[in-house]
């Protein structure tokens, strides 16, 4: 390559670094609306009483099925601008 000065005689060198990586971010959020209440509910109670010798049994359980809101979000970010050196 010859280098010269003057009109029509110039040489330009440029270096560019390209970052073509695309970034994808995904998230899922679950929320319960307290005002919505339960979809179903089961409550159990048991109790046994004994006599003077004392047999005693107590039990209690609660099961609720609640509705959840689901929000799924996906973001695609473009590659950053090119840098030159």
Write a short abstract of this structure.
By secondary structure, this protein is mainly beta.
List keywords for this structure.
85 residues; two-stranded antiparallel ribbon; 6 strands; rod-shaped; flagellum; Flagellar M-ring protein; cilium; cell projection
What is the topological layout?
Layout: E1 16-17, E2 23-31, E3 38-49, E4 56-66, E5 69-77, E6 83-84
Antiparallel strand pairs: 1-6, 2-5, 3-4
Number of helices: 0
Q: Uncertain regions: pLDDT < 50 for 5+ in a row? A: none
Order of helices and strands: EEEEEE
The N- to C-terminal Cα distance equals 21 Å
Q: What value does the average pLDDT take?
A: 81
Query: Rg from C-alpha positions?
Result: 36 Å
**How many E strands?**
6
């Amino acid at each position: 390559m010859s280098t010269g000065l003057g009109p029509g005689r110039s040489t330009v060198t440029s270096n560019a670094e390209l970052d073509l990586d695309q970034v994808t971010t995904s998230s899922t959020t679950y929320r319960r609306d307290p005002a919505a209440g339960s979809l179903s509910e089961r409550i159990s109670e048991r109790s046994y009483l004994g006599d003077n010798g004392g047999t005693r049994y107590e039990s209690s359980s609660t099961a609720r099925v609640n509705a959840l809101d689901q929000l799924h979000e996906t973001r695609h970010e473009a590659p950053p601008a090119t840098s030159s050196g």
